[in-house]
Amino acid sequence: MVLRDILHKCLNSRILKLSGTLFKQLVDTIDAVKSKKMVRNLAVFDFDHTVINDNSDTAVLKLINKEVPEEVKQLHKSDGWTAFMQGVFNTLHENNIKEESINNLIRQLPAVEGMPELIKQMNDDLNYDVIIISDSNSHFIDLWLDQNNLKKYISRVFSNPACFENGLLKIRMYHLQNCCKLSTKNLCKGKIMEDFITEQNSLGVVYKRVVYCGDGINDFCPILRLSKNDLACVRHKYKCVDVVLRSKEGRYIDEDGETRIVTSDVYIWKNGYDILEYVKQLQRKESKLLE
Ligand SMILES: [Mg+2]
Questions:
Q1: Which residues fall in the annotated binding site for Mg(2+)?
Q2: Is 54 in the active site?
Q3: Pick the catalytic residue: 5, 46, 254, 256?
Q4: Which of 13, 128, 217, 239 is buried deepest, with most CB atoms within 10 A?
Q5: Are 20 and 46 members of one domain?
């Protein structure tokens, strides 16, 4: 209570040149401490083309030397992504591609440069909980994280559930949603992120900053839900950049004619080391302002 009052007085008398955002963050932090909540940061990662430098779903097609049948391709349009992927897995099964061949291919997919280091340091040194939200599937992500010794740094993975049944990989939708038109029916990353933050809050964890890292169009919804103090990291030359920059400048109008504006800070990255350096810089700036 006393520290909160001192901060209010300092701000009013302009002794401290704190920005409004930083001040709010401080007050929130003090309130969280007062209510005995744990104050941390949250890092949210997409998986394909963000953590790994490939698309795990389409990568498995390399195991068959032919095109996916036309009726399987049509499933994407008619029934969505998970129906299409089930069609792909059925095709692999029909072509006698074994479980171990699929698993080995996924295990060997390359990481984006610096991403393993970023995930480790955010978790170990920078006070971040790390989660993954991906439209790939739980089986592939679990295999890859295990192979790359990253599981212990990831608090939760949200993806379409999948597992092998008699040699056939079966996939289901993560959820069925129709409240977000920016997202596919099987996965609204923004809702998942917000629900996770609310759940954590009820368990006594408050996030003072959220850093979201992604590359694709389905990363736009969660980025729109970030606040002023958060950070959206979008991959250079990938689809998300254009949409996010247009939205940041107030030039993105959705299909209902509504202008959608990104309010968080935006950083364009080429590898994980870029993001790591930028996040460290942010923390150094905040520390200096408080000196
Ligand atoms: Mg992606």
A1: 46, 48, 215
A2: no
A3: 46
A4: 128
A5: no
Annotated binding site for substrate: 57, 135
Residues spanned by the domain of 274: 38-55+111-290
* Residues 71-91 pLDDT 10s: 999 998 888 999 999 999 999
Which pLDDT does position 14 carry in this prediction?
46
48/144 Cα distance (integer angstroms): 11
- The token duo for 271 is 């590898």
78 falls within a domain? no
**CA 237 – ligand 1 centroid, Å:** 13
214 CA distance to ligand 1 middle (Å): 6
Active-site residue, from 5, 28, 31, 48: 48
Averages of pLDDT over each 10 residues, the chain, 291 residues: 52 50 63 78 98 95 87 90 95 96 98 98 98 98 98 98 98 96 96 98 97 98 97 98 95 92 98 98 87 75
223 assigned to some structural domain: yes
Cα 34 to middle of ligand 1, angstroms? 39
Co-location of 170 and 260 in the same domain:
yes
User: Catalytic site residue 48?
Assistant: yes
Pairing relationship of beta strands 265-269 and 205-214 according to DSSP bridges:
unpaired
Give the separation between CA 150 and CA 249, rounded to whole angstroms.
Answer: 36
Residues 3 and 51 in one domain: no
Structure tokens at 118: 């970023």
Query: Ligand 1 centroid vs 175 CA: distance in angstroms?
Result: 18
The total number of structural domains that make up the chain: 2
Do 123 and 223 share a domain, yes or no? yes
Regarding whether 166 and 47 lie in a shared domain, the answer is yes
Q: Please tell me the distance from the alpha carbon of residue 238 to that of residue 46, in angstroms, as a whole number.
A: 13
Quote the pTM value.
0.89
Q: Give distance in angstroms: CA of 136 to centre of ligand 1.
A: 9
Give a yes or no: residue 90 inside a domain.
Answer: no
Q: Compute the distance between CA of residue 181 and CA of residue 245 in angstroms, rounded to an integer.
A: 20
Residues 14 and 136 in one domain: no
Token pair listed for 277: 């350096």
